[in-house]
Structure formats: structure tokens, C-alpha cells
Design goal:
mainly alpha, 0% strand, globular
Amino acid sequence: MLALLIILFFVFLVLGMPIAFTMGVSAAVVFFTSGIDPMVMAQRTFTATNSFALMAIPLFMLAGNLMERVGITEEIVDFCDKCVGHIRGGLAQTTCLTGILMAAMCGSNNASASAIGSMLIPGLRKEGYDDGFSCSLIAAAGNLGPIIPPSIIMIIYASAVNMPINRLFMAGVLPGILMGIGFMVYCNVHAKKLGMVKKPRATAKVVWQSFKKAFFALMTPVIILVGIMGGIFTATESGAIAVLYSAIYGLVRRRLNLKQLVESLYTAAISTMGPMVVICFAAAFSYLLTYNDFGEVCVAFILSISRNPYIVMLLIILLITILGMFVEVTAALIMMIPMFTNLIAQLSFDPLYFAIIVIITFCIGAITPPVGITLYVSCGVAKLPLKKAIKPIWPFVFIMLGVTLLIVFIPDVGILLPNLLGL
């Protein structure tokens, strides 16, 4: 039964079937041919989405859309440019800093990449960056979205393994900032290689004026993070707060009307359908993997190679990286949870340490060809064929892998902040 499930999965994947239906059809065939009551599949698909925590997905989708419409993204970009635009690489540095700040407001890498890309790709072209680098930079900056809280991927993982979401959220802050800094260093080196000159540093007065203009926009991540850390509201409720704040901001600034609000609701609903369908069918697929002891088989294979925790983590990173090259992040995460649960139990890993490494590695898959969804999004915004961004994306991938390995060997990089905050 397990062999049939896996064979069907890869056959449908190779044929180009969307990943949600690849898992759904594979699971349906096995349910109907194995003697398991097909009603179990219906129950699993319903139960997977019958979760208060997953309400955060449409809320953050809506918040991200509203932020773009009401000008929050534009004001943040302007402020970031005044802060770091004088560093060699200028607008590329601005893109990296914008990615860090947008990540603290929007839990989706694709939404962040779309918002940042639509604003900055024309400017990057004008400054002399080739399209491949520009799209790769936008994808990498947007990919900080699921790592720096709030994060939709973290919410899905935490709800699946019953982990405190606040603690997992805070574990992503330091790694995400380190990745953003790594991107900025690379942009500096790349700009120097292209012979780009530095722009004049903005005066303190100009920076202050830009800050005042962007103050209420910058309050969005502050309200979300302080509220979550202080226990004022849950991760799901933070999505509602972000929506409310963005809507009020737009109304006060007269940048939001009823038509735009309806359009934002429609766009958020359509954007939510994708991940929710994936979660539905991935739950049924994951049930069959668990039913057939997939987790035990994988764990036994890994432990037959080594029981050294560091080597095991490196093998997990390798496995997830390869899987992420072909399978959408949400689907791959839910598929692999049975194996992760068994590994944590057998090797006594700190669940938080394990979770943050796994989530970051899955996020790397979102920008890794040939199925790097976030890379597709940034190329779509730039109207650029994906093949032109394949080579330029690898330095960003290696920076993310470098931070991941840093957490493997220095766990405090991932778990220090939650421990300091007593979460």
C-alpha cells in the first residue's frame, strides 16, 4: 500500500498535476483499493482545516493585500531607502531591509515577494541590476516572511504538533535577521563587482522626516510582535489586528474605499484557497503515510546511517532540501510530520530547536529550482522566464543554508530569544 501511494505520487508529479491534486488523487486511489473506509479520507480532509489556528491564513493574506493597497509597503520602502540606501548596492540593500520589515507584518513569502517586487523591480532595473539578480533578490527578501514572525508555515506546523506558537514565532526572529544581514552583505559584494558607486547618505533630517511619514506604517509590526510576545492576543488574533489596523490606516489616510476593500477580500479569498486545498489533501496523504508506518521506516533508515544528532540533522536538512526542490512547502511539511514526530521522540531533540531548523529548511525549498514557488512569483511580477533566475538565486540559497547550519551547531541562535522572554 505504501509503495503504491509513493509511486502514484511521483507519477502524477512528473505528469505535471498540481501538488494538491497529486496528493489527493494518490490518497483516493489507495483508500478505495486498500479496504480502508473512504469516509476516513473525508473526515481527515475536513478535520485538517477545522482549526482556529488556521484562521490566521486568510487573515494574513488579507492584511498583506490591504497593506499594499493603502500604501504601507510604499512608506516602509521609502524609510528603508533613507536608512540604508547609501550603502554600496543602494536599492538592493533597501530591498533586503524591506523584506525584514515586511516579514514582521505578513506571514506569507509569496505575498511579501509580490508586494516588494511590484514596487522595487523597476527601480532595480533602472539602477543597472540584471533581471535574474533582481528576481532572485526579491524572492529571497520575500522568503523571510515565513521565518520572521508572524508566519503561516509556523502556524501550520505548530497546530499539527501541538507546539506553543508564540515560542516558535520568537525562535524565527534572530535567524531571519541574520539571513537578511547575509543578503545585504552579498548585495554589497555584488554591487562592488558591478562597479556601482555609493549614493550620498541621507541627512538625519531627511531620515527623521521619512520616519515620521512612515511611523504609523512601522507601527504595524510593532503592534503584532509586542501583542504576541506579551500574550495580549494569539497568533490568529494578530492576523485580525493586522487587518483592522491596515483598514483603519487606509480609511484615515483616505486610501481605501469600499470597492478596494471588496477587491482585497476577493483576492485574499482566492489566495487562501491554494494553501487550504493543499492542507486538506496533504492531511489525507499524511494519514496513509502514518497508517503504513512511513515515519518508522524513515527513522529506521536514518538511524541505520548514524545516531549522532548532528549527522541526523544534516541528513534531515539534505532530505528536506531535495524534497523542497519538487514539492510545495506546505504539502511537504505536512507529509513529513509523521517522520519528524518519531525522530524527536527517539533522539530526544529539543522540539523547538528541531522545529526552527525544519521550517527554515522548508522555506529554502520555496526559492530553490525547479519548483521554487516564491521564485516563480517574483519572476511573474517581473515577467521574466524562470530559467534566467536559476543561477542568481544560489548565493541566497547558500546564505540561508549557512544560517541553518549555524543553528544546528549553535542551538542558541534559534532558541535564545524564546528562552530570554520566558516563553
